[in-house]
Amino acid sequence: MRVLRTGAGWVLGLQFSPDARALAAYVRGQGVFLWNLDAAGPPVCISPRASDRAEGVYFTPDGRGVGWLDYDGWNVYDRDARRLSRVRLSGPGQIFRLLPGPAGDRVYTQHTFPQHALVGWRATPAGWERDWEVTTRHLNVEQLTVSPAGDQLAVLTRPTTGPKWVDKHFVLELRSAASGRVLSSAPYPWKVTGPLVVAPDGRHVVGLHGMTVVVWAAGDRGDPALVRDASRNPFYAGAFDPLSRHLFAARSDGTVHVFDAAGWGCRVRFDWGVGPLRTVAVSPDGTLAAAGNERGELVVWDVDLD
User: Fold this and answer.
1) Whole-model pTM?
2) What's the pLDDT at 93?
3) CA-only gyration radius of the chain, Å
4) 306 falls in which pLDDT band (50, 70, 90)?
5) CB within 8 A of 143, min separation 6: which ones?
6) Which of 244, 247, 302 is nearest to 272 (CA)?
């Protein structure tokens, strides 16, 4: 187990590189950091003024770039050239959220004023071109994530039409990543939302709502399964292992619970004594996990659940 440190702040974004040899993190009030896990040195701060939009920090598929969204647009840091560049997207409104597809040739954005929309983009020799656009003028889109396979978007949303729309429950929608159209929908039991995680094999979508793990099976249009224990500490973040066998869930009591996706029982619980954990990630090869707390600290440990 290793503890990596930055300045004081909540660790809200966390991602391993494709080869599991580097780690990127966004720390509120401190910026975007990059660690070489093969070395013992301090991290490199590649963007000291990043905002909370950078919580979606990610690596490009070749591992040579680190990208994130900020108020000034879409930023990509070249690890070889050690240079930061901005990618232009001619969108319908201000970009509020940006999600890259796993192959690197697709990007999905959520836009706000003056035109609310979800937009799918594809890479072309001439740059990024708009592939599809879905208006969200009358939708409250709270959570949005792309499946690891890159074929679907999972969305928690509700209509904003009619009186007292804020009293309506949300709905889980699975949308086509190729067109943005709704493929299926299922009830979400609450009026507020938490993070969404899609299993790499696409068989489950999981939401984290307070002290509850919310589980939908693929194609399920009925009520989700609700997994709870005796603890009163909420879950803040979740991540699947690459084989979709286990869900790692970070909790406010400083623990990471590992749930078995076969029956959703808690198989093991990690407690590193570092305080409330705000984010968690599992390396693409499944050998490492990392979690970040509210003091700018990250815990990295070896994973062996066999």
Assistant:
1) 0.96
2) 86
3) 19
4) confident
5) 154, 155, 156, 193, 194, 195, 196, 207
6) 302
Structure-block tokens of residue 144: 């949005």
Given the structure tokens 């005796």, which residue do they identify? 230
In SS3 terms, the chain reads as CEEEECCCCCEEEEEECCCCCEEEEEECCCEEEEEECCCCCCCEEEECCCCHHHHHCEECCCCCEEEEEECCEEEEEECCCCEEEEECCCCCCCEEEEEECCCCCEEEEEECCCCCEEEEEEEECCEEEEEEEEECCCEEEEEEEECCCCCEEEEEEEECCCCCHHHCCCEEEEEECCCCCEEEEEECCCCCCCCEEECCCCCEEEEEECCEEEEEECCCCCCCEEECCCCCCCEEEEEECCCCCEEEEEECCCEEEEEECCCCCEEEEEECCCCCEEEEEECCCCCEEEEEECCCEEEEEECCCC
Q: What is the pLDDT of residues 137-176, one digit of tens each?
A: 999 999 999 999 999 999 999 999 988 999 999 999 999 9
Show the tokens assigned to 60: 């490009």
Q: Which two tokens stand for residue 244?
A: 């979709």
